[in-house]
């Protein structure tokens, strides 16, 4: 037990180190102003990291599949479609002129709404989880094809605006939206934490979990609602983040050697914080490309995940 | 007591169970036998509320299984399915410990830990306690799942082919443990068996199922006859009695 605990503390130390570096490296000019700016960005990074890590753990537990990401539910594809539709209808300038609060709220409601509209009826009819995920995946494909259709019709100048929206962007998050995001993410994370023992049992699959007294369809509905909420919040705040969750959960599992949620949830979240905050710090001060974090995380994350998959087989 | 009344089940227009009625007393070891596809697993999964009840009524200790909260039922009844199919990263001790989930919602007391140790010892798993479930052999994993069911401490255990993958020594040990649970702890065990000689040796009662219907129900002496076995399995076997013990020679 203490060996596992040490690993969790190791992840915590790593995350803390990244946070300290992010706040302290290369401080110059008006200290109060710079620190406030950095703290805001830190809050955005931490919040997205935790939301993505927790959502991925939950989805993988419910499906019993360690290589799924919440993007199988098609929510990020819906987000991109929404952004593209707005640029298409309003033009690049019009899009840039919309109140960010409105954009955030609309994106959040659209994602939660579609998740409820598509997944709840399927759950209520006791159809299989896989049918539901397949529906999500098909919707994702539909949204993506609509997005690329619209993108073709968009003025090339406006297209550049759109490309910025396709990857997560942590630089331009507003304080008031951040507060809303933090509250929702914290609520979701606390709920997941309180469910940690039930989640261990859910991971055994529907039959064994039912035998142990889990009300399967109710529990699954609650967990998927949590996933949808966490994904919607983080996507509405910064944009889609796909591979980060896969990588941090795989790393957390590799590091601690257990799938118990009391360990996996915090470790995955801490590693996600370390990756995002550390990555941002490195890009900003080492490589001078602060805006590119979203792209880099997806690229490196994808590669790292492939590597983890390839080495898993040999054990 | 397990009361099953007028239970029917169909999937995609095929009827799997036809109007099954059955009353099983408390404190017995009951073997469910019958050919592949007879409906044994389906009947067990209905009793254990693993699939919704379509027609009829099932009650365990007076609790209707389709209306009792899952949590309450999990302190009375547990089930082990034919294909446990779990391959996640979990130690044997953790798995067995999940048996205590219905009682403490995941928080283990000292009493729980003593029970887990007892289950590990009974099923000869102490040496494997800290091994990953994925790294075990099929039979070892099977024993770990039965140990979890035992650890749950319910009065009723439904076990779907728990002897799968077990060698003769462990199959015998498993049956003796179940027998002991029935005799000394007053538990009720319903077990699906394919080797009818185990049913002959250890069961108080045998229920024979074929094509979704109960063909016969009674003591091993009543059920294990040449004619009835032929009706069930479609060929004539030799039924012997050696030292007072029924023995069915079902291979040529
Ligand atoms: N979900 C399902 N949909 C359609 N048919 C099913 C379903 N589940 C079971 N069946 C069918 O119902 C019949 C009974 O199946 P069941 O698994 O209960 O048999 P069994 O007696 O346990 O057999 P075995 O000895 O092979 O385990 C079989 O013909 C099977 O094909
Ligand atoms: Mg079966």
UniProtKB/TrEMBL annotation, chain A:
An example GO BP is: siderophore-iron import into cell
Q: Which SUPFAM superfamilies match?
A: ABC transporter involved in vitamin B12 uptake, BtuC
Q: Which keywords annotate this record?
A: Cell membrane, Membrane, Transmembrane, Transmembrane helix, Transport
- Membrane-spanning ranges: 42-65, 77-98, 104-123, 130-151, 220-251, 263-283, 289-310
- Kindly list the places in or outside the cell where this protein is found, as annotated in its UniProt entry: Cell membrane
Spell out the GO cellular component terms annotated for this protein, sorted alphabetically and separated by semicolons.
Answer: plasma membrane
List the GO molecular function terms.
transmembrane transporter activity
InterPro entries xref list: ABC_BtuC-like, ABC_transptr_permease_BtuC
**How does the UniProt record describe the way this protein sits in the membrane?**
Multi-pass membrane protein
A Pfam cross-reference name = FecCD
User: Its domain of life?
Assistant: Bacteria
The text of the family note is: Belongs to the binding-protein-dependent transport system permease family. FecCD subfamily.
PANTHER family attached to this UniProt entry: FERRIC ENTEROBACTIN TRANSPORT SYSTEM PERMEASE PROTEIN, PETROBACTIN IMPORT SYSTEM PERMEASE PROTEIN YCLO
Q: Which protein is depicted? A: Iron ABC transporter permease
UniProtKB/TrEMBL annotation, chain B:
Organism in which the protein naturally occurs: Azospirillum cavernae
- In this protein, which residues make up the domain named ABC transporter? 2-236
Main localization of the protein?
membrane
Q: Which UniProt keywords apply?
A: ATP-binding, Cell membrane, Ion transport, Iron, Iron transport, Membrane, Nucleotide-binding, Transport
List the Gene3D superfamilies hit by this protein, alphabetically. Answer: P-loop containing nucleotide triphosphate hydrolases
SUPFAM superfamilies in the record: P-loop containing nucleoside triphosphate hydrolases (SSF52540)
Q: Which GO terms describe its molecular function?
A: ATP binding; ATP hydrolysis activity
Compartments reported by the entry: Cell membrane
The residues forming the signal peptide are none
Identification of the protein by name: ATP-binding cassette domain-containing protein
Per the record, the similarity remark reads: Belongs to the ABC transporter superfamily.
Membrane topology reported for the UniProt record: Peripheral membrane protein
Pfam family example for this protein? ABC_tran
Q: Name one GO biological process term.
A: iron ion transport
Q: Which GO terms describe its cellular component?
A: plasma membrane
Q: What is the lineage of its organism?
A: Bacteria, Pseudomonadati, Pseudomonadota, Alphaproteobacteria, Rhodospirillales
Q: Does the keyword Signal apply?
A: no
């Amino acid at each position: 037990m203490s060996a596992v605990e040490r690993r969790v503390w190791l992840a915590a130390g790593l995350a803390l180190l990244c946070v300290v570096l992010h706040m302290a490296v290369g401080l110059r000019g008006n200290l109060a102003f710079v620190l406030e700016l950095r703290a805001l960005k830190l809050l955005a990074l931490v919040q997205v990291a935790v939301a993505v890590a927790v959502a991925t753990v939950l989805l993988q537990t419910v499906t019993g599949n360690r290589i799924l990401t919440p993007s199988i539910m098609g929510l990020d594809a819906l987000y991109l479609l929404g952004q593209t539709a707005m640029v298409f209808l309003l033009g690049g300038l019009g899009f840039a002129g919309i109140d960010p609060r409105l954009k955030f709220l609309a994106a959040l409601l659209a994602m939660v709404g579609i998740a409820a509209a598509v997944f709840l009826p399927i759950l209520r009819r006791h159809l299989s989880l896989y049918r539901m995920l397949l529906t999500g995946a098909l919707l994702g494909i539909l949204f993506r094809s609509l997005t690329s259709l619209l993108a073709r019709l968009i003025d090339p100048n406006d297209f550049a605006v759109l490309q910025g929206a396709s990857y997560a962007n942590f630089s331009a998050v507003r304080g008031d939206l951040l507060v809303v995001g933090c509250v929702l993410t914290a609520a979701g994370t606390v709920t997941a934490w309180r469910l940690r023992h039930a989640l261990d049992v859910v991971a055994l699959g529907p039959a064994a979990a039912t035998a142990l007294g889990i009300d399967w369809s109710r529990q699954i509905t609650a967990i998927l609602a949590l996933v949808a909420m966490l994904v919607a919040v983080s996507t509405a705040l910064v944009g889609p983040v796909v591979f980060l969750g896969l990588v941090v959960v795989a790393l957390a599992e590799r590091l601690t050697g257990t799938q118990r949620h009391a360990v996996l949830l915090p470790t995955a979240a801490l590693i996600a914080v370390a990756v995002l905050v550390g990555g941002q710090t490195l890009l900003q001060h080492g490589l001078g490309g602060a805006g590119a974090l979203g792209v880099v995380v997806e690229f490196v994350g994808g590669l790292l995940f492939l590597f983890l998959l390839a080495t898993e087989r040999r054990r | 007591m397990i009361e099953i009344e007028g239970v029917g089940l169909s999937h995609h227009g095929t009827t799997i169970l036809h109007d099954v009625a059955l009353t099983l007393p408390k404190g017995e070891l009951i073997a469910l036998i019958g050919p592949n596809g007879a409906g044994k697993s389906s009947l067990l999964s209905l009793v254990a509320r693993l699939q919704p009840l379509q027609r009829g009524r099932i009650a365990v200790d007076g609790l209707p299984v389709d209306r009792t909260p899952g949590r309450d039922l999990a302190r009375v009844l547990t089930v082990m399915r034919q294909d446990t199919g779990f391959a996640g990263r979990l130690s044997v001790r953790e798995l067995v410990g999940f048996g205590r989930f219905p009682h403490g919602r995941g928080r283990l007391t000292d009493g729980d830990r003593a029970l887990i140790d007892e289950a590990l010892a009974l099923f000869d798993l102490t040496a494997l306690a800290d091994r990953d479930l994925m790294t075990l052999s099929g039979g070892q994993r099977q024993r770990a799942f039965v140990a979890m069911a035992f650890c749950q401490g319910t009065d009723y255990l439904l076990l779907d082919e728990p002897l799968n993958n077990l060698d003769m020594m462990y199959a015998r040990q498993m049956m003796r443990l179940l027998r002991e649970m029935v005799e000394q702890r007053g538990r009720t065990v319903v077990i699906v068996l394919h080797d009818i000689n185990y049913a002959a040796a250890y069961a108080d009662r045998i229920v024979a199922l074929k094509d979704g219907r109960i063909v016969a129900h009674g003591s091993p002496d009543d059920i294990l006859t040449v004619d009835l076995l032929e009706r069930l399995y479609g060929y004539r076997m030799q039924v012997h009695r050696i030292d007072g013990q029924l023995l069915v020679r079902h291979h040529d």
